[in-house]
Amino acid sequence: MLIEFKNETIAYKNKVVFRDFSLEINEKERVALIGPSGAGKSTLLRAIYNKIAEQASYVPQDYGLVPQISVLHNVYMGRLDQHSSWQNLRTLIRPATEIKTDITDLLAELGISNMLKKRAGELSGGEQQRVAVGRAIYRNSPVMIADEPVSAVDPHQAHSLLETLSSHSPSLILSLHSVELALSHATRVIGLRDGNIYFDAVPDKISSRKINKLFSKNSQVNTSSKFNIK
Amino acid sequence: MLKTSLILLTIALFALLAADIEVLTLDPWRELGRLTLGFFTPDFLAVWNFKEALLNTIVFAFCGTSLGILLGTILAFKFELTAVRLFAAFVRSIHEIFWVLLFLPVFGLNAFCGVLAIAVPYAGIFAKVYAEIIQESEARPRDLVPVGTSGVSLFFYAVLPVVWNDLKQYTAYRFECALRSSTVLGFIGLPTLGFHLETAFSEGLYSQAGALLLLFYLLVSSLRWWLKPKFVVLFSILSWSVLPLTTQFSWENMIRFFSWEIVPWPLRRDGFFAGTGEVSWNLNAVSEWFVKLLNEEIFWGVINTLILTQIALVGSAVIALVLFPTVSQHFSTKLLRQVSHLQLIVLRSTPEYLLAYIFILLWGPSMLPAIIAISLHNGAILAFLIGRHSNLINLCHGFPKRRLDRYFFEILPRIYGSFLAFLFYRWEVILRESAILGILGVATLGFYIDSGFAEEKLDVAFVLLLVTALLNLTVDHISQRTRKHLHLSNETSSI
Amino acid sequence: MIHYLFGQIFGVVFYGILFLLGQTLVTNTALAQPLVFTAIPDQDTERLQERFNKVAVYLQEKLAIEVIYIPVKTYSASIAAFKNNAVQLAWFGGLSGVQARLAVPGSQAIALGEEDLNFVSYFIAHTSTGITEAATLPDNLAGRTFTFGSKGSTSGRLMPEYFLRQHFEKTPSQIFRRVGFSGNHSKSLQLVQSGSYELGVLNYKVWEAELAAGKINLKKVRIIWKSPSYPDYNWSIRGDVDKIWGIGFLEKVKSVLLAITDKEILQAFPRKKFVAADNKLFIPILKTAQNIGIIRK
Q: Can you give the residue range of the structural domain that contains C26?
C-alpha cells in the first residue's frame, strides 16, 4: 500500500478540514480528486505529499517556481537532493551538457522547447504551469502528486499534458477542475465535499446524478463548477 | 493614533520647557553671511589637495560596507538565535563615531579603526535587515524543494534568487549611508573628507568648506552611475588593497584594553599605583564608584538625551508634515516638486552631525542647533517618504478644491498611519543622533562619553556607552510595541 | 542607451583614477619603519602643519631616518597613538604628557621649551562684560558663560580649572551659568571675541601669536587675569625606541631637539629654545590633575 490515512485529522492553516478521515491508495493507481472549490482537495494533496515526500513529486496549484532564475534551473530543482551541493552550485553557474540535453528533451515533450534559458518569471501562466510539471517529472519519482496541473492550458493541450504526466509516473494522484478530464484519465475518482469523501469509485461506476449532486446541492457552489460538468 | 500623537506632542512640549535652547552668540547671523558667501564661491582649486581624503572616504566606506556585509550575512543565517539577535541589536545601537572612540585606544587612529567603526554597526544592521528580507520573501519555492536537499543548495536556488533584488537595493542604500558615516568620521580625526571639512569650518575657510561639501554631494549623487553590481567585487578588492594599514595589529593593546583599561577604576587603583597592574576585588568601592557615576553623569546624560530626542522627534514630524505637500502631486506643480525634491535630497544627504556642527558654529552649543539639525535631516527624509506615499493615492472626483481642505480631509487622514510608522522607525535613529551630538558640546550622553575618552577614563566611557546602547534598545522596543499596538505596517524597516 | 554608455564610461574612468591614486598610496607605505611623531591639536591646523613639517624635515636630516608628522584632531587621539606605538615621539601638553607617559611605562619627557618651565594661562573676557584686568580672579565672573579649550588641555583646562576651584571653592559648572569646551586655544579666543562666550581661558603663547598676527580685536576681547606659572608643553618619547633604531637613539633624539637653533623652527612654536626635561618635572601637573579628578587617585 502506498498511502494510508486512518481516522486522521488534517488541518490547513490551523483550521481542521478533514476530521476522522480514512483513505487508502495503492501503488500504480491513478487517482483524481474532484469537488467544488473549498472541498479540501489541495489540503488533502498536501497531506498526501507530506506523508511520502521522499518518493513523490509535487506540482502545486500556484506552481511555486523561482521567477528570477531560468527555466532550466527551475526544472533542475526537481533533483536538488540527488546531487551534491557542489554539483548544484556548478549547475547554477554552468550546467553540464547532459543536464542541458535531458531538460531540453523534457521541455520539448511539454511543448515549451525554446524556453530553456528564459527566466521563469517572464513566462505566461500556461508556460509556467508546464515548467512546474516539468520540474515534477524531472524529479523522476515513483509517485506524482499534482494539484490542478492543467488549469492554465487550453482543453486539448490539457489532454496531452496529462498523458505526458501519467506516462512518466506509475502512480498518479491529482486534483482536477474538469470532471471530464478526471473521468477519462483516472482509474479512480474521489469526490470530495466539505472535508468528506462523497464518493470513491472507478469512473465507470460514477453516474452523472452523483456528480451533479456533488457540485450543485450546496447552495454555495459557484456557477463555474456547474459549467464544467456538462 | 491621535492619542499617541498628542502624547508625543505633550512630552515634547514639557521637554522644551526643560531644554536648554538659548542662542549663545551675540550676533547669530554674522557667520551665516560669510558661510553663504563661501558656498557660492567654492574654492575648487583647493579640491586637488583633498584627493587623498576623497579616496579614503570611498575606500573606508567600501571596506567598511564589505566587511559589514560579510559579518552581517553570517549573523543573518543564525538570526533565529536570541543571542545573535541581541548581539546585532547591541552593535547597531552604538553610533559609528562612538565605535571609533572605542576602537581608538585599541587600534590607534588609523584606517583599520575607521573601517571597523563602520563595519561593526553595519554588520548588526545587515544581519537584521537581511534576515527580515529573507523571512518576508516568497516562501513557496523553499517549501517545494525536494526533501533532503542540502542547506547550501536550498539557499542558492530557492532563497538567494528570490531576495537578490531587495538585498541589492538595500545594500546600495547602505553604501550611501556608509559614505556619510565615513565622511563624518573625519570630524574626529580619520583622514576622510570630514577631517578637512572640520578644519575649514572651524577656521572660517568657508570657500574651502563649500568646495568640500559640493564634492561630497557630487560623490553621493553620482553613486547610481558608478556603483554597478558588476564592479562591486572588483572595487572591494581594490579598496582593501589600497587601504593604508600601516600599523601592525597588537594583541598587547587588545588585552590591555579589555583586561585593564575598561575595568572600573576602584578595582585597578591599587595595581595602578603599585605599578603591578593587578586587579583587586573591592566590590564596595565599585558600587560607590557606580552610584557616583550614576548621579553625576548617567542621570543627566540620559535625561538630556531623552529631552533632545523627544523634541527632535516632534520637530521632524512637524517639518515632514509641512514639507511633504511640496513634493506631492496633490498640492504642487511639477516644477515646484522638482525644486523641493532637490532640496530634500540635499537635506537628507547632509549628515546631521555636519548640520549640527554648522548650527553650533552659528548659535553656540545649546540644544537649539541640535534640535534643528536633527529635525531638518529626519524631517526631510520623512517628507520624501510620505510625499512619495501620497502620490500613490488616487483622489476620486469631487475632492475638495481648496488645498487646505484637501490636506486635512483627504490626504492627511490617508497617509497618517504610514507617517506614524515611518516616524516610529526614525525614533531610535534620532536617539542615536541625539546621543552623538554630545560630542559637539550639547550635554547629552555623548558629552560625557567624549569626556571619558578625553580624560583617559575608559572604564567610565565604557559604562556610558553601555547605558547609551541600553537606552537605544529600550526605545527600539517601545517603538516596536507602539507600532504593533497601533497596527502600523511593518514593511518600512529598510529606511 | 546613451545613458547606459555614459554610465559605463563614467565607471571606467572613475575606477581608473581611483586605481592610480591607490597605487601611489601603496608605494608610499611600503618603506622601512620611519619615526612617526604627532602633536596635540591645540590650535589651528594650518599653523600646526607649518610648525611640525619644519620639525620633521629637521629631524629627518639630523637622525638620517625617515621622519613623518601625522596630524590628529583630538588630544585623546594623540595619547592613543603614543600608547599604541603608532607614534614614537610626541609634542604633548603638560597633562596629556603625564597621561601618555603613565600609559606607556618607560617613556620619558625629554625636552621642553624654555617658556614651558613657567607657562601661564590668560583668562579673557568679551569687553561687553565690563570686566577689567585684576591681580586676582575677579569675583564678578560668577554666573556668566565660560569656555575652556580642549577637555584634555593643561593651559586651557586643567590649570585654569584648578585656579578657579581654588579661588571660588566651587566646581566650574557651579561658578558659571554655562561651561563649554571649545576644542583648542584659537577657538576659545574666537568664541569670546565673537561673544559666543562671555569669558574664556587660553594659553598665553597662543594669545601672543594671535595678537602679533593681528587676529585679536582689543576692542572686543581683553585679558582679565594672568595665572601663576606651571610646567607645560614637552617632547615625550617612548622608552622602546632604542630597540627599533639602536641603543642611544633616545639620547640622540633628545640632543637633536635641544640643539635646535634654527630661528624659523623655534619661531613656529614659538619658543626661544628647548631645554632638557624629565618626568619628575611634571609631578605638580599630576598632583593637580588628581586634585580636580581628571586623573584619578
A: 1-32
